[in-house]
Amino acid sequence: MSRILPADGVEFGVTVPVLVIGGGAAGMVAALAAHERGAGVLVLERDALPQGSTALSAGLIPAPGTRWQRDAGIEDSPERFAADIVAKAKGEPDPAAVARVTQAVGPALEWLADRYGLPFSVVDNFSYPGHGARRMHGLPSRSGAELIDRLRGAVEESGIDVLCEAHVTALYADGPLVRGVEITRPDGSVEPVGCAALVLACNGYGGNRALVERHVPELADALYFGHPGNQGDALLWGEALGAATRHLSGHQGHGSVAHPAGILVTWATITEGGVQVNTGGRRFSNEAQGYSEQAALVLRQPDGIAWTVFDERIAAIARQFEDFRQAEAMGAVLTADTPAELARQMRIDADALAATLADTDRLKTEGGSDGFGRSFAGSAPLAPPYRAVRVTGALFHTQGGLVVDDDARVLDGSGAPLPNLYAAGGAACGVSGSKASGYLSGNGLLTAVALGRIAGSAAASAAREETSR
């Protein structure tokens, strides 16, 4: 249980200007930003190696108006990106919060590239649902593991201290003012560490079954594909300190996790013209709406299982992602020259699958829409060799959280900032609204990178003011 302890009488053996809880993308970016502002920084990571949910993701960050987009001839702007976010979430997100991150993320990526050598490029050969421009940026392997490795390397090269196997189990506070944290080590020993400013970058509550049951009951029994350390500590600490929260039911699901391999299968398999069928060989939804809301739809199918069906042309696009290459190497991607042979390998009704594929191919040829509302205009019919992956739905991470202002300061119930507390990434309320369908691809890393940089910079300034008093 996350605790708030009185700071009175506590002797901190070590006190740092800026303390960051969490060594994922949000925490690493916050640490770099605070260090660049001249603050001493310590990152606390509960695991033996900083990875977090970032390492489990595809590592793609949506950003508008970047030089990589311009080089690819892609026209985009923060305003256009903001409109896409608001449209996907049906107007729920706070416009100020949306503007905050859409304006900050592009400069943040260029800063990471120029200052720390992260070799970003834009994904320019397919589009994600809801995005009006191709604005996903990633590293060469298109993997979250590479993203966190590069960020960790940048932090280490900058001389920023990262203390691993340091589980923060309590905050020390005088009222709403945080004075430090309690660290519990693997051997059970406890150590207090003081700070002038604290950045919560320890994500949301996806790994806390009780909180998921309370806020996202429809995914209470779903596969959790996030980091197990996401126990809702930031949310619980914030609430105990009087922080405001918003959209706690918001989350990112995913309807395409290879089962039982447990590997994310890129949604390009759908956006480029693939479909999902259940174990009866029939389609059951408009897959093109988005992979987040598809998670619950897949879980409603018999045994919580679906099959993503596509072809070699689409597989060639998907192979730019390391996860997909791993799925192929593990044998999770079936291949066949005919629908009948594919159905045999899938162990489903061959006539049903053939009829489903014939119907979607007809719609593609005619440029029509199906009964679920999916338009197949401009989509090429599937052609042999065919591909299929057995998938299930999963919860990736939560999107609701602590309400923050333009400096990523955590706000209380009246809208006033708490004295020295900041939040980024999944610890802060995101821009996806209260439903899975509000999640626009990349919203998680969007707030990790954009708010991480904002929080680190602001925390450094606050710590400087505090120590100069």
TrEMBL record:
GO terms for biological process: steroid metabolic process. Its cofactor is FAD. The chain crosses the membrane at residues 12-34. Residues 18-434 form the FAD-dependent oxidoreductase 2 FAD-binding domain. InterPro entries: FAD-dep_OxRdtase_2_FAD-bd, FAD-oxidoreductase_2, FAD/NAD-bd_sf, Succ_DH/fumarate_Rdtase_cat_sf. Pfam families: FAD_binding_2. Keywords: FAD, Flavoprotein, Membrane, Oxidoreductase, Plasmid, Transmembrane, Transmembrane helix. This is 3-ketosteroid dehydrogenase. One of its GO terms (molecular function) is oxidoreductase activity.
